[in-house]
Write a structure and sequence with these properties.
six-stranded antiparallel sheet, 7 helices, single chain, 331 residues, alpha+beta
């Protein structure tokens, strides 16, 4: 069913990992995929005829330009770092492409074979500076051979590659990244509940959380919700047409239990199958008023989202940029 509460604010599209930086170089080499030779084809970016050979995988010791640095990584000749990845064991450890795939084996137990690797050059923030997106498909997140994927967004700073953002896509969760770094995500939380969110990777490689919205189509499922538990009680004593969708929107990333408990929530509703104005002098408004739940009109929620987008520098051009066009990394 179409999600009406957002109007045109969201095209259904998660894990923000922070901005990029510098650090001491350490190297991780891989055995399993070390012998793999790959070639990179680029249609829109000019390619140097050759890549300088180096004795070390540390790209801070090379004179490659920005895009050639990405190409070196795709050829397994350069390292990616995780200086600003929350929970990373050691941000100063660098990972080659093959080492990353080896590490996936320790995390994704449903992965049967080496993942299919695809890449794309993108422009986060629409500032003319190129970033690299890499998609690994075949992770077996939901089930073996389910075509689930892990996507990395990598940015070069001062000759060193940093992981700035990563996310997963699988059977019950779809996330989309466009060519200017705008990210939308949506997935099922249960039979009657659907959640979706949006965020933005800016030109500096920084993840900016935009909002999360959750829709509940079965009002009786709200019995255990402390803020909304009176809604099903009041609704049970009312006669009304259609299905009431209750939408909860938050604008702060809930990265901890404390944040989850203290984050301000904004409630709205819409009704599928009702005629006329459902927000003024209606039984639906009575239900919310009598339940003591402050609600906002859908257009008010849209305005809040737009205000935050503008505060983050998200223009219509950034938000409506085309989806990524992936190129398969040839073996």
């Amino acid at each position: 069913m179409k999600k009406k509460i957002l109007g045109a604010m969201l095209v259904a599209g998660m894990l923000g990992l922070g901005a990029c930086g510098d650090g001491e170089v350490k190297m991780v080499e891989s055995e399993s995929f070390a012998e793999t030779e790959v070639s990179v084809e680029r249609a829109d970016v000019s390619v140097a005829e050759s890549v300088a050979e180096t004795e070390s995988l540390s790209i801070t010791e090379t004179e490659l330009d920005q895009v050639d640095t990405y190409e070196a990584f795709l050829k397994n000749e350069a390292l990616m770092y995780e200086h600003f990845v929350e929970g990373a064991t050691d941000g100063d450890v660098g990972y080659s492409l093959s080492a990353i795939m080896d590490r996936f084996k320790e995390t994704y137990y449903g992965m049967q074979d080496a993942p299919v690797v695809e890449y794309a050059y993108i422009d986060c923030g629409n500032d003319g500076v190129t970033e690299l997106a890499v998609r690994f498909t075949g992770m077996g997140i939901y089930a073996p051979e389910d075509d689930s994927s892990v996507i990395y967004v990598i940015k070069e700073i001062d000759g060193q590659l940093e992981l700035c953002y990563s996310y997963e896509t699988w059977a019950r969760s779809e996330t989309r990244l466009n060519q200017h770094g705008y990210v939308t995500s949506g997935g099922s939380n249960g039979a009657s509940n659907y959640g979706f969110s949006a965020g933005y990777i800016d030109g500096a490689g920084k993840w900016n959380y935009l909002y999360y919205m959750e829709e509940e189509a079965d009002i009786n499922q709200l019995t255990m919700n402390e803020q909304l538990k009176n809604l099903p009680v009041v609704a049970a004593n009312k006669s009304y047409d259609g299905v009431i969708y209750v939408a909860t929107t938050t604008f702060e990333e809930m990265v901890s239990q404390e944040a989850y408990l203290n984050t301000e929530r904004f409630y709205a509703y819409y009704v599928d199958g009702a005629e006329g104005d459902v927000y003024t002098d209606s039984v639906y408004k009575e239900i919310f008023d009598e339940a003591g739940v402050k609600f906002y009109l859908p257009e008010e929620i849209d305005s809040m989202i737009l205000e935050k987008e503008l505060s983050l520098g998200i223009t219509e051009e950034i938000k409506n940029a085309p989806d990524i066009s992936w190129e398969k990394l040839s073996e």
